[in-house]
Structures are given as C-alpha cells and as structure tokens.
Amino acid sequence: MAPVSLERFMKELEKLRQQMDSGKLKSGDYDQRLARAIQELRDLKLDANRAAVGQALADALQRGVITPAVKAHIEKRLGLA
C-alpha cells in the first residue's frame, strides 16, 4: 500500500474538527477516529519528512484545527517529539 500523503492526513484532521464543531461527532468518537487515523499513518507511513509534518501540525494548531494536546499526542505517537 502507498504511504498516506500529508495533505490527506491534514484534510482528515480538518474534517474531524468540522464534525466536532457541528455536533455530528462526540468527544469519544473524535478520539476514536483520531486514533484510527494515527494508526493508519503508523501502518502505512506518512509521505512527508519530519520538518513538513511539524510545519503542517503547527499550522493546524494556529488555525484551530487541533488543540495543543492533540498536536502533542500526534507528535508523540508518530515519534516526532
């Protein structure tokens, strides 16, 4: 299987945030889907270098797509921290 593109992962994070904001997704469901997305990245690998991932996560944090806790969690799970 092909690696997951950074753009696809960031779109998934944005989609999760939109669903949370609209009330379509509960907190526990968000956590579950985020864990599934991270596991997919670990299984298939991410098609980006560390610097690009770090920049994308920092941008997502700044735009309010993710919280500081989610950013730290993703970095830890992907071995970036």
Task: Outline the structure in words.
The N and C termini lie far apart (26 Å). The chain has 4 helices and 2 strands, in the order E-H-H-E-H-H. It is 72% helix and 5% strand. It has one domain. By secondary structure, the protein is mainly α.
Q: Topology of this protein?
A:
Blueprint: E1 4-5, H1 6-22, H2 27-44, E2 46-47, H3 50-62, H4 68-77
Parallel strand pairs: 1-2
Helix pairs in contact: 1-2, 1-3
What are the main properties of this structure?
81 residues; mainly alpha; 4 helices; two-stranded parallel sheet
How would you briefly describe this protein structure?
The chain is about 70% helix and about 5% strand.
What's the number of helices? 4
Estimated share of beta-strand residues: under 5%
- Multimerization status: single chain
**Helical proportion?**
over 70%
Instruction: Enumerate the strands of the largest sheet in spatial order, edge to edge or round the barrel.
Output: 1-2
**Domains counted in the coordinates: how many?**
1
| SSE series | EHHEHH
Shape: globular
Average pLDDT, to the nearest integer?
Answer: 93
